[in-house]
Design goal:
Blueprint: E1 5-11, H1 16-27, E2 30-36, E3 42-44, E4 53-58, E5 61-66, E6 80-86, H2 89-100, E7 104-112, E8 115-121, E9 127-133
Parallel strand pairs: 1-5, 6-9
Antiparallel strand pairs: 1-6, 2-3, 2-4, 4-5, 7-8, 8-9
Length: 135
């Protein structure tokens, strides 16, 4: 059975690049950032692009972030969620479906450059991002 990793997912409402570059200066590590192209498909983020997905990994610390989605503006207390990440597609698909039961799917599991990703709010109001790594 593969190990599942849990990390905070922070909606910075337009300040993701600034925040994540700051955290990288503080913690070191590898920072990846993606934006959307004109068709809404992920691409490496250029300076000035809105960040759809950023990930910092530094010595066991993982922080995931974005600039948010205009359809789901962050409210105080809702701008941080939990991110589950692993390579076990069946296990995480089942977790996504079970967490979505009684909640709201904001983005179904969708292929991305880093793997497969989906968003939901569970029935308790907790935001979840599920990331299935490429094998």
């Amino acid at each position: 059975m593969t190990q599942i990793h849990l990390a905070p997912y922070i909606n910075f409402q337009g300040q993701a690049r600034e925040a994540m570059e700051h955290y990288q200066k503080v913690l070191g590590g590898k920072l990846e950032m993606f934006a959307s192209d004109e068709r809404g498909q992920p691409k490496p983020a250029a300076q000035g692009d809105s960040i759809m997905y950023a990930r910092l990994e530094a010595e066991g610390v993982v922080i995931v972030a974005s600039d948010g989605n205009p359809k789901y503006p962050a409210k105080v207390g809702e701008h941080i969620g939990l991110s589950l990440r692993a390579s076990d597609r069946a296990r995480l698909t089942k977790a996504f479906d079970r967490l979505a039961d009684g909640g709201q799917v904001k983005m179904p599991l969708t292929d991305q450059p880093w793997g497969t990703s989906g968003w939901l709010t569970d029935r308790f109001g907790i935001n979840w991002n599920i990331d299935i790594e490429k094998s």
